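The passage that follows is intended for readers who have already worked through the single-chain material. We present the inputs for a multi-component assembly, then the predicted structure in tokenized form, and finally a short commentary. You are encouraged to pause after the input and sketch how you expect the pieces to fit together before reading on.
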Amino acid sequence: MIKAEWFFWLVGAVFLLKAAQMTVDRTNPKRFGTAAFWGLLGVCFFYSTWVNEKKLPAEPLGVAVLVLICIGGFNFTGKGKPDTTSEDERVRLATRFGNKLFIPALTIPVVAMLCAVLASKVEFGSTPVLEEGSETILGLGLGAIVALGVGMWVLRERRVSVPLHAGRGLLESMGWALLLPQLLAVLGAIFQAAGVGTQVRKIVESVLPDGQKLAAVALYCAGMFVFTLVMGNAFAAFPVMTAAVGWPVLVEQMNGNAPAILAVGMLAGFCGTMCTPMAANFNLVPAALLELKDQYGPIKAQAPTAVALLGCNIAIIYFFAF
Amino acid sequence: MIVLLGVLVVILGFAMRRNPLLVVGVAGIVTGLLGKLSPVEILRTFGESFASSRSVTIFAITLPVIGLLERNGLQQQARTLIGKLGTKMTTGRFLTLYLLLRQLTAAVGLQTIGGPAQSVRPMVAPMAEAAAERQGGGRPLPDKLREKVRSYAAGTDNVGLFFGEDCFLAIGSILLITGLVNSTYHTHLEPLHLALWAIPSAVCAFLVHGGRLLRLDRKLERELVTASAEMSVARTDAQEGEATK
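Having made your guess, compare it with the prediction:
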């Protein structure tokens, strides 16, 4: 049986390998900080396995997470000059390979889907091939590996070091932002442990008339929208609103369909992203790139769509999630 | 009640544009302390929830193959492909088609082939403008309309990305939902189910924004007529001015 933990080890090993590459990359002015960040992250991916099995204490991992936060948060990471192709070379390569370039990219979702849908039915002896409950994650991992093989074959690339270097370039340019979603998930768990959810639920219950489904759904979606407007980031709004309304009221109290409520709730937050200058990379950066005089031009073009879609999302949850 | 100050830390931190990692770290520690957790318990919660939410970060495993494709011209090929669609189209229809393509490619995990720098500035905005100029009989667009067309090009890229990417099961937001909910509420949600539930909203987004883009065509037409009328009035004024001089 292929286990999910093996795959987490693979990801951890990739991080460690990249950290080793980063230490010797002299084009990166902050190479040691960068290498420390990804190396420590890689170690955490291994150590976590035994924390999950309760064989090792979780506290050292907590310390490591805080160290990661400090390395990333105080800007000790940087990026080197990746050894890659120039724009002209890429145009030439694109004409040479043509639409074949899309085949490896499409392999990832196809394999992931196949694993998610079929793998639970394939058994080896009497145990399923993929660990139960982790088919999607393992599918993604297998998809990425198969796609890499397909890609190297399609592009006639024999050196494994080439994709590894290219991947490191992307990793360095995303930087610590890559870790942010996971840390927000951690924050959500702390909110829960500290009782934020219960507190907000008390407030919500005193405000919401009992059993008012439409009001509760609207409150959840509008809350996602408003929090995202203020924070500029739906990911940050999600743990707060889900602890307050989404999980306790809509899922537990009203027996809603959790995947539907949470997925659509996140999208209600995305409607907020389209209306706020706080989401600078989506709204202000394009205005600058396109040399617009009105830096709010993109927001004005998006806002009516965003508001209409907020209504759609409320309706989708209300009609289909219960 | 006092634990809610932790939420306030998050809001203030993000609103004041502090480094998000630090905001999360400080908010976590503050909330834990206010919620009467001991420092050791806080560390344990950090550790345990990190261990059970690793699935959020695993999309990093796709970076080598994406990097390999990009250095071999993936984005350039995507540009060529869109370029072939551009001729003989109105602004609204062209942007609607781009919206559909952006949604579909994002839904299969190709979020990075579009974006303000990758596709809007080099391709989509110039082609949308060119279409509007064709509509106006080949004259250069008045500044106000040029701004509007460019804004719609940028907006369309965002709508397509936001309401396409969540249909892909390995995107950060979907993995955040499963990671958060599975580690916080000890249940088991499958990313695939969440991704499927993003489809109805994606369809709505296409209908709503596509409809607005097609209406943009009519608005452009009207404003181009007034603009050209103003221009010809200005021209005759100028000519009359010449004559009476």
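Commentary: The radius of gyration of chain B is 25 Å. The longest helix of chain B spans residues 199-244. How closely did your sketch match?
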